[in-house]
Batch of 2 targets.
Target 1
Amino acid sequence: MKLKHLLHVGIVALLGVGAVSARTWTSANGKNSFEGELKSFDKENNTVTIVYRNGRTVTFGTQKLSEADRTFLEENGKAAADAADPVDVEAALKEQKIGKPLAKKGILSRLEGEKFANFQLEKAPQYYLVYFSASW
Amino acid sequence: MIHVSLDDDKKAAESWAAKEGFPWPTVMKDNLERSGLGDYLPRGIPNYKLISMDGEIVAEGKGAVFQKVAELSKTEA
């Protein structure tokens, strides 16, 4: 759908769910793939934490990923993890007129499965694309 | 993107979001004032606003907002 595509562009461009971290991942055997944002990469223990599009966060061994994905982690994992440093993000949001109230606990929620759950911003964007709507 | 739901009924908002598969962080109506986004409430919905981190409205309306998004994306690329 065109609208959803445009909105996705907005998310990627403005909310800092950057092109480096949001990607399609493939299993080691190449049979399965899924979309998710890289949250952290532990090179020492060879584990990766990925946030699925539905908001669910999972951590697993990098051996479950394709060689291309493991190469990606080697080349981009640290930068992506640094960019998502929660301490820096929290401090940056507190400096913003828009980000400060949104960073308070309980203000934002996001779907987890079919229910809303509390959500904290993981990036401090320069711009916020705000969509006002209702189900009716 | 931040989705501001103006539904009075949270369950209706949740069902709609689940049906459409909304991936965005959402501000529910009962949190609108505390979120600071109540200051930007539009006269009608749906409505899009592009707001800088300092609170300035950079663009408003679907066409203008996405045009500005495209410009900013090029600048960042």
Target 2
Amino acid sequence: MCIAIPGKVLSLEGNKAKVDFSGNTVTVNTGLVDPRPGQYVLVHAGCAIEVMEKEKAEELLDIFADLEELR
Amino acid sequence: MKITMAHGGGGKDSADLMKNIFGKHFGNEILDKMEDAALVDPSLFCNTKKEGMGKIACSTDSFVVTPLEFPGGDIGKLCVCGTLNDLLMMGAQPLYITCGFIMEEGLETDLLERIVLSMAETAKEAGVKIIAGDTKVIEGSGGLYINTTGIGHVPSGREIGAANCKKGDKILLSGTLGEHHSCILSARMEIENGIRSDCAFLSDVANALLDADINVRTMRDVTRGGLATVLNEIAESSSCEMVIREKDIPLSAEVKGLTDILGLDPMYMANEGKMIAVIPEKEAERALASVKKTAHGKEAVIIGEVSESLPGSAADTAARVTLITPLGGTRVLDMLYGEGLPRIC
Amino acid sequence: MDTAAVIENLKNYDGPELKLMEVCGTHTASIFKSGIRSMISPAIKLISGPGCPVCVTPAAYIDKCAGYAMKKDHILLTFGDMMKVPGTDGSLSDLKGRGASAELMYSPFEAVERAAAHPETMFVVAAVGFETTAPAYALAIEDAKVRGIKNLKFVTALKTVIPALSLICENQPDIDGFICPGHVSVIIGIRPYERLAAKYKKPFVIAGFEAEHILAVIYDIVRQTKKGEARAKNLYGNAVREQGNIKALDIIKKHFEEGPAMWRGLGIIDRSGLYLKNEGYFDGGSRGLDADIKLPGECRCKDVIVGRINPDECPMFSKGCRPDAPWGPCMVSGEGACGIWYRNRKA
């Protein structure tokens, strides 16, 4: 029910951040998170809702590596 | 029933309106083909039918975009390229164009002149003369709407049309999706990016195919309603089914980023400088090589093929275009419904 | 395991038929976008749940929003999904043709900026969503307060997912596992699912929104049911912390109070609605707005929303009810199960 996508924090100013999504820059509210420039944040409805720990590719590899065998 | 924005979206609502009101009353054997341009037999104007006269192509389009100027172009360049491309898609050489301006009170004349200059330059580059025009002023707040009608010539023997596609034919796409639509949305929503409209006259791509003697089945520019709508329209005209592969569809990172933010699907977004061509299987590689040498076709790619020809015309609810997803799943690509509002949830 | 192996396993699954509910409308959309159903065994049935805030909103709420949109010097701001949903007298989109001022917004912060720029107009926000969006509305209100903006109102129809999940577990014991909403979980964490898993003895696994995320979760649920396990797991650890987002949970507690809410198809569920505390920006929201439009007798919207049937089992599907002529919001909303199924029929 909630589209949210990860973007890279470019700069911070007060309770806002400039976040980059593959070349698109959007100003986002950071009231719910404490990011540093260079980190990725998950953005929903103009609001950063969490700081992402890993790059997506790495994350997916880890998820699959942790899956236990079916048998 | 009242007209809604969905009727202008280029998808199913637009198509229904065409059929139920315009087609119903205007219908004739030329208009009913519903191609990008109408083809007229010029021997009507002669006493004797001459062999080799070809056909006159005629197309009209109206342009209501805002903002009037945007990265990569303006309404002037757009209204010339858009109509000339419609002629090109029928295999016509564009020759003449007319233009009608509806100007709202308050429009700055400096802006108007920039747009008119843009139209003049675009027409000149295309080798086309502007031969008639009209202006009107209405109450408003500085808006501008332009209609252009183009006339061209299809050489004798060239039969390009949406009903021609056959099983095995390949589908060629001239480049990346979504630039024009993304550019306009970004301007309206104040999202900063470097996306420029891809507004362009596509004669280099079209001629790369026609001059190389490729037996092009049909060509269409990818405008309102997006690639999905265009493919569905062709599939319906040809009574066929198509399969295309998502991993082969070129999309720039910036456009993808924007569609992710806004929850849009690039398959339904408008371009103004991209086209598809349906090519017989044996000629596809040669066609691709030829197109890739052109300025507007250097990122061209074969995205799929006509998978099945259906006898007669299939039911309205049959889905004609299937997309193979990057992981190998399949999904149906229908026509656009509604206006494609960006989602949040 | 890698993606190919997981897909292979799911395609060749030959165990008993399993019913997995994907609760979140965004998951419904992702599943179709990636063609996941075409990649897995037909014995693994994915059914759509009520996680589409627009789909579960009764017509009375649309009517209230429409009332504001028709008022002089008022502009209603809403997310795109809400524009097409039928109210008693038509959708917001229909009413625009009759003089209603309803416009799209992309974030509640935009509403604050517009209110600041146009003090002569009252901006009314149709504030729908789940726990993911509630904190954004709260932050927007804090911003408005600090700036002394008064020409702003939030008509909320916010809901929380867990009470609805509980009700589904009570009434539909035939569901074998739940694919849990990734972004709601960013806010609420994993604890609520642990309680549900313990009580109802079913797997609850949190999924992200890429095809790979969803496939991994389907795989894990299939594996758990095979082993007779019933655990809550987080397979979206990159975004979901075990405890959720504490700041977000605090801000929700600060500005909202729980109350009963009407879910189309499920009825009134206690403590499943979030209502703004009265700080001058609230007008009661959807409290008490339970009335709905009269749907035709054959419409099975309320069964589709809880996954009792698939959209194509409703007699009106694609016959009387289509995206261009919808009855229930399931067909209209970008995340409604019926609309998505219709656009993807055949896949």
